[in-house]
Amino acid sequence: MTSDAQRIAIHVALGRCRAKDVHNVTGRGLVYCVITERGTEEREVPIYDRDLNAVHDAEKVQDDAQQEEFLLHLGKCVDPGLDDLQHDWNVVHASAAQRCEAFLKTLNLWDDSK
After folding, report:
1. Fewest CB atoms within 10 Å of the CB: 10, 13, 48, 78?
2. pLDDT per residue over 48-90, tens digit each?
3. CA–CA separation, 113 vs 96, rounded Å?
4. Where in the sequence is the domain holding 57, given as residue range(s)?
């Protein structure tokens, strides 16, 4: 999946916007509009695959079963052939991009065609 497709899929999965509301604005990237007390505001879609803090916030919404599945997917993303100690180290230090892939696979939203 492209970075933009991942960003949109995660943001939609978190219930923060609808896919059809996201637009690519030159110079700002992916944005969506929300209605607030002060009117309509544009907000940027976080760059989940490059921001560990943003993807960590997404991971927090998972229930126990999803967390277990997420760890299995994340382990496969980092390197399934390593010994236990090295494997655990790599999982703990997984990149934001690897975490996004595992998150989307956990929710069955990963799409290789995008």
Report:
1. 13
2. 999 999 999 999 999 999 999 998 889 888 876 766 667 778 8
3. 21
4. 3-106
